[in-house]
Specification:
The chain has 166 residues and is α+β, with helices and mostly antiparallel strands. It is built from 5 helices and 8 strands. The mean pLDDT is 92.
Length: 166
Amino acid sequence: MAIEHDFFGLLESGPDGSIFWSETVELGDQAVTVDLTAPDQEDVSAAALDVAAALVSSLEAIDRSARSAMVDELSDRTSEVTEYILQQQEQQGDDLEALLVDISGDVHIDVIRSLQLMSMTILADEHGGSDPFAVLEYALDPDATDDVLLVNLDSDASVLSVTSAE
């Protein structure tokens, strides 16, 4: 069985009924992997695919919103964003400055600005639910796949939470 969508094209289901779509999208000078997945195509509505298409099309605005949410978390010394930045400072030491794209003097803000959006995973079967509909994965060092921040979005592209991968 398959689902046809104007943006995603023909989404064919696997033998287990799951669907998967993947594309690389350019965001400024970086390539972002966008995946759409659902364990059962029966749980994916046309509305969910329309919302997913809108998220992909507005990736730049969503990225700004996600980074703003990270900045908002800096006021909490125990937030996962603050912990992530402190961990990066400890791990990178003097090499941290080489990873920063802008040096303003506020290391926390500079790290958030320098994070690379690596991927966006859309969980199409979570449309309208309380679980994340999309997850953005950010890394300061793209080669350090374990050191990432995850920004969880709902179907309205509002930030639900920012967590570390650990």
